Amino acid sequence: MGIQVIPTTPFSDQKPGTSGLRKAVPVFQKPHYLENFIQAIFDTIGDPQGRPLVLGGDGRYFNAEAIQTILKMAAANGFSRVKVGQNGILSTPAASCVIRKYGAIGGIILSASHNPAGPQGDFGVKFNTANGGPAPEKVTNAIYERSCSLRQYTIYTAPDVSLHTLGEFPLGEMIVEVIDPVADYQALLESLFDFDCIHDAITGGRLSLIFDAMHAVTGPYAHQILETRLGAPRGTVQHGVPLPDFGGGHPDPNLVYAHDLVQQLFGDDPPVFGAASDGDGDRNMILGANCFVTPSDSLAILAANATLVPGYKEGLAGIARSMPTSQAADRVAATLGIDCYETPTGWKFFGNLLDAGKATLCGEESFGTGSNHVREKDGLWAVLFWLNILAIKQQSVADIVQSHWRTYGRNYYSRHDYEGIDSDRAHTLMTQLEQKLPQMVGQSFGAYTVAIADNFSYTDPVDHSVSTQQGLRLIFDDGSRIVYRLSGTGTQGSTLRVYLERFEPNPHHQHLDAQVALADLIELANQVANIQGLTGRDRPTVIT
Q1: pLDDT tens digits, residue range 282-309?
Q2: What residues does 22 pair with on adjacent strands?
Q3: In this structure, are residues 93 and 370 in contact, taking their beta carbons and an 8 Å threshold?
Q4: pLDDT confidence of residue 17
Q5: Which reaction does it catalyse (predicted)?
Q6: What are 186-189's contacts with CB under 8 Å, separation 24+?
Q7: Buried residues in 12-42 as b, exposed as e (16+ CB within 10 A)
Q8: Burial code of 490-525, b = ≥16 C-beta within 10 A, e = fewer?
Q9: Model pTM?
Q10: Could you give phi then psi for residue 9, rounded to 5 degrees?
Q11: What is the pLDDT of residues 425-466, one digit of tens each?
Q12: Could you tell me if 216 and 251 are in contact, meaning their C-beta atoms sit under 8 angstroms apart?
């Protein structure tokens, strides 16, 4: 046993994307591939100076092997303590909680979020900084630059550390502390929400629910919090055992991939509330009886009702949303007299706003919602927020949504995903569309006249950093929008996302299906970008 210095050569494809480095499992299994990236992280973040490192993942295939490698590399790189979730399990929001609570230098989260898993599935490595949030671009760029020049890595040779038992175990001069993955996170949530009120509503029969963990990381958290602490009947949590391949499913909580849950909420005798989370526990889908709540509307409704919840009873400092997310939250912010910030896609862009006290709630249309309690989006947090509101208001989800629309107006909104399209064709589509943008301002397309046509850029109001090339926007003179983006979270081909939005202030016209209300914008979006001609797709893979 001892420290070994292993010669290596750089890999050219280790540039982190929106949420860390994501590749297919066989790529991470290449000799030295994982080790190179981990060494680049350690070399970039500097001397740990006695501060712990947090480590865990969503339990997907290759999680266990990767954790052992990272532990041994941490022992060889001067760390004195690593806090690792029992059995290697730690959800993304729980990791953020632990980093913040114990003053860690940061954390390594092993997940490809909502991407499928298994031997041929996806794997990911993400570094979160000391504030608990995803590393900002200046850090991820530095990690990538280091990976390009790496010539060696260091690792401690020793037997694997058992992660089944809670406690402290030596690895060289380092302590591996195996922690309960749920305890610290649950304590934080109990400080925010009225668990007793929710418990009484559930056990009193006023609030029935189903939670689909999709065989991913939130299973243990949901069993402990929803069933054990809040008194929901056994069986409330479905697909609650994390599996290396997520049971062969796609752990993305949307209307397509959470099909079983949707059927139950839109079937006979549905419960009051339904929800699902994703692979690493940071996303959420909210449903009521015969009612789907869009993530954009969910953010706005949580903001409008925030003072009902103990942790937010003093009100909100501000709201932040990603640019493609609908403007429903903007209308709530305007009524409350607070700022609403529009950022690029990626939770890391919310970090500065949260740290500076400029925002309290944040959300993305891609089923991500969170607050300043951690520096990640948080699926179970959103579920508990909704449960707290439902327990107090004693109304149905649909009634709460429709009341919100009557007060603030409805932002008809939809996202069309074209998954796994040829990357060259996808980039050709975006390039050709961007070239047309300058000439489109002032043009009319039926009832819509283009007021703004650009590629969104963002100047951070805290550190004044600038992020460009964040999505192509067509904004019409009535406020309607079409946005086009290529997703940075997939590993196979490209995913084109098209976002469509139209505001409807008249309550008598707020009950259409979104695809019907947006039909003319959908046709216009396809026409302007020549989607079918350039991709060969005549319909989206997923509509939300």
Answers
A1: 999 999 999 999 999 999 999 999 999 9
A2: 124
A3: yes
A4: 82
A5: alpha-D-glucose 1-phosphate = alpha-D-glucose 6-phosphate
A6: 186/221, 186/224, 186/225, 186/229, 188/97, 188/101, 188/373, 188/374, 189/225, 189/373, 189/380, 189/381, 189/384
A7: eebebbbbbbbbbbebbeeebbbbbbbbbbb
A8: bbeebbbbbbbbbbbeeeeebeeebeebbeebbebb
A9: 0.94
A10: -130, 150
A11: 999 999 999 999 999 999 999 999 999 999 999 999 999 989
A12: yes
Report the distance separating Cα 412 and Cα 402, nearest Å. 13
Are 420 and 493 contacting, i.e. CB atoms less than 8 angstroms apart? yes
Contacts of 532 (CB under 8 A, 6+ apart): 526, 538
Catalytic residues: 113
- Closest among 390, 391, 408 to 399, alpha carbons compared: 390
Whether residue 502 contacts residue 411, with contact meaning beta carbons closer than 8 Å, is answered with yes
Longest dimension (CA), the chain: 73
- Rounded to 5 degrees, φ, ψ at 298 are -60, -45
Crossing angle of the two packed helices 379-393 and 295-304, in degrees rounded to 10: 50
- The Cα angle at residue 138 between residues 136 and 142, in degrees rounded to 5: 120
Contact 83, 179 (CB under 8 A): yes
Cβ atoms of 179 and 98 closer than 8 Å: yes
Asked whether the beta carbons of 95 and 313 are under 8 A apart, the reply is: no
Cα-based torsion angle of the residue sequence 340, 218, 91, 93 in order, rounded to the nearest 10 degrees: 20
pLDDT, tens digit, 9 for 90 and up, residues 18-52 = 779 999 999 999 999 999 999 999 999 988 888 99
Sort residue 440 into left (φ over 0), alpha (ψ -120 to 50) or beta: alpha
Residues whose CB is less than 8 angstroms from the CB of residue 48 and which lie 6 or more positions away in sequence, other chains included: 77, 78, 79, 80, 105
Structure tokens at 501: 């939005």
CB 82 within 8 A of CB 104: no
User: Which domains, ranges and CATH numbers included, belong to the chain?
Assistant: 2-180 (3.40.120.10), 185-408 (3.40.120.10), 410-543 (3.30.310.50)
Which among 418, 433, 427 has a CA at the least distance from the CA of 541?
A: 418
d(CA 465, CA 322): 16
Alpha helices in 271-420 (DSSP H): 295-304, 328-336, 348-355, 379-393, 397-408
Give Cβ neighbours of residue 183 (< 8 Å, ≥ 6 apart): none
- CA 83 to CA 73: how far, in whole Å? 14
CA–CA separation, 442 vs 65, rounded Å? Answer: 57
Say what the alpha-carbon torsion angle 320, 387, 210, 239 is, to the nearest 10 degrees.
Answer: 50
